[in-house]
Amino acid sequence: MSWTLLELLPELLHIAGYSLVASLLTVLGVGAELESWHTFAVEGLSVMTLWYAFMGAAILYAAVYLVGYEQLLPRVRRVVAD
User: Fold this and answer.
1) Rounded CA gap, 64 and 11, in Å?
2) E strands of the chain, at which residues?
3) Residue 71's pLDDT is what?
């Protein structure tokens, strides 16, 4: 399928949006993981340490798998293949 600029623009906007969301979620998830390590180093094993670790892992899962793999990658493949 040959893309015209008018047909390609919405796909590129979706790709840019999903890339932005995945990037922001990744930064947030890494920040939560780093905070869990910091809390563990300062306070030892506490509820907050576990909370930060769990939330960081959940956010990283959302960023990499749910947004990146499930949403972004198929759109990029579709645009590149056509």
Assistant:
1) 20
2) none
3) 94
Q: What proportion of the chain, given as a percentage, has pLDDT over 90?
A: 78
Establish how many alpha carbons lie within 13 A of residue 6's alpha carbon, considering only the half-sphere containing its beta carbon: 0
Report how many domains make up the chain: 1
Q: Which sign does the torsion angle of CA 60, 58, 32, 15 carry? A: positive
36 pLDDT exceeds 90? yes
Residue 3 is assigned to a structural domain of this protein: no
H/E element, 5: helix 5-43
What's the full length of the chain, in residues?
82
Enter the pTM of the model.
0.85
Q: How is residue 62 written in tokens?
A: 């959302």
Give yes or no for a contact between 68 and 22, defined as CB atoms under 8 angstroms apart: yes
Asked if the structure places residue 36 within a domain, the reply is: yes
